[in-house]
Design brief:
The structure is a single chain. The chain is α+β, with helices and mostly antiparallel strands. The protein is built from three helices and four strands. It has a single domain, classed as Histidine-containing Protein, Chain: A (2-Layer Sandwich), CATH 3.30.1340.10.
Amino acid sequence: MKTVKICLNSIEKVKSFVNVITRFDVDFDLVSGRYVIDAKSIMGIFSLDLSKPIDLNIHASEEMDTILEALKPYMIEQ
């Protein structure tokens, strides 16, 4: 598992983010405070506070480089 910080501060970003991660057959969780939701759920994402960066847990053992490359537009440099 790998955790990265992402920013989803607009409706368009949320839509395109979900479209990107649904291409991968791995689990993604968004963690905001004590809430953990499925990152492939648009309704779940909108239940979070999107004004702050959110942790994205990527549950993948293979193709991690491909996944991280696809997520670059949403990631916050750490």
